[in-house]
Design goal:
Blueprint (H helix, E strand, L loop, with lengths): L4 H17 L12 H11 L3 H13 L23 E7 L2 H14 L3 H17 L3 E8 L16 E8 L6 H17 L5 H8 L13 E5 L28 E8 L2 E9 L5 H20 L13 H7 L15 H11 L6
Parallel strand pairs: 4-5
Antiparallel strand pairs: 1-6, 2-3, 5-6
Helix pairs in contact: 4-5, 4-8, 5-6, 5-8
Length: about 350
């Protein structure tokens, strides 16, 4: 990869200046080039600060690392595949404002609120309490890097613990401290962290984590080309880097959810159900963030009726019979039906 999301805005801004004003108004030379950054990154590996950051990751990811057992539609292939698709769902302006207000009330980053809610959903689906997800950092830790075109992003691992009895606002505070620490120790390349902490690899899964969360907050390009109308076109995605990747992107006053999923593991209907559960969970949190994690509502009325068996026809049962007896009688009446 030679471009990251930040670089797109830099490229289009410079292109619009050159197109509109001509070569005489080209942007001034940059103080450094990407080759300078590469050399700095190599030299940094020998510094005490780099070793300190590496020690942080070795401590954070010490011990047996849990594998997220998120329920899938299909049996996991013995080797990881990268075929994928995506499902989208807008949050709407009202819910977006409510979540921004929640972040302000709690004194936390919007990223932390959304990531904490995503982890709650993973916990509720899997029943696991030690959750690892991946995320990305911009990697532009110095002002001189802001105008460079290149790939600066780095992957970080966010590990946190949560229980059903834990209140969401308490978990949010703990997760934000994990996020801040990850940002402060973002200089260690992800592949080096993998080599240090995961010596045995499972070819059916990505290393360290299987699910990623990203909030797209790179600068948005407002490039203007004299005499031309420029529009943004989204490219269709047929790949999946992980089992699931939830990307949240601000767009026209609301947040857009984009769930990339591995088609060897999930059906399209499942991806949309995950998004619907997440939206319902966010609505619940926007109304009450002090509720225990195990009590946060994440089923909309239609799904709740389906789960409780309220959507089908009513059935009269012999209340004097045992459950085993009712099952046996039904099996005799319908011997070829699925159990």
């Amino acid at each position: 990869t030679i471009f990251d999301g930040w670089s797109v805005s830099v490229f289009l801004d410079e292109l619009s200046v050159c197109y509109t004003a001509g070569p005489s108004q080209a942007p001034p030379p940059l103080p450094i080039q990407y080759a300078d950054y590469s050399k700095w990154q190599r030299d940094a590996t020998a510094t005490p600060e780099f070793q300190r950051q590496l020690d942080y990751w070795k401590d954070q990811l010490a011990g047996p690392l849990p594998v997220l057992e998120f329920p899938t539609d299909f049996t996991r292939p013995p080797r990881q595949t990268w075929r994928g698709a995506s499902a989208q769902r807008p949050l709407g302006a009202e819910l977006t404002r409510a979540l921004e207000q929640l972040a302000r009330q709690q004194g936390k980053m919007l990223f932390a609120v959304l990531a904490a809610a995503w982890n709650v959903l993973l916990h509720r689906y899997s029943g696991q309490e030690d959750i690892l997800i991946g995320s990305v950092t911009a990697g532009r830790t110095h002002h001189d890097l802001e105008g460079l075109i290149g790939c600066f992003v780095n992957t970080v691992v966010l590990r946190s613990q949560l229980t059903p009895a834990m209140r969401f606002d308490a978990y949010l505070a703990e997760l934000e401290s994990v996020i801040v620490a990850a940002q402060e120790n973002q200089s260690v390349p992800f592949e080096q962290i993998v080599a240090e902490v995961q010596h045995e690899r499972d070819p059916s899964r990505s290393p360290l984590f299987q699910v990623m969360f990203v909030l797209q907050n790179t600068p948005r390009c407002e490039a203007e080309f004299s005499g031309l109308r420029v529009t943004e076109e989204a490219l269709s995605n047929s790949g999946a880097k992980f089992d699931l990747t939830l990307a949240v992107q601000p767009r026209d006053g609301e947040l857009l959810l984009d769930l990339e999923y591995n088609t060897a593991l999930f059906r399209e209907a499942t991806a949309f159900r995950i998004l619907n559960n997440f939206v319902t969970l966010l609505r619940s949190l926007a109304e009450q963030s002090e509720v225990p994690i195990g009590q946060i509502d994440m089923l909309d009325p239609a799904e709740r009726a389906q789960v409780l068996g309220l959507s089908g026809p009513s059935v009269s049962l012999d209340m004097g019979a045992s459950l085993a007896g009712i099952f046996e009688a039904h099996a005799h009446q319908n011997p070829d039906a699925p159990a």
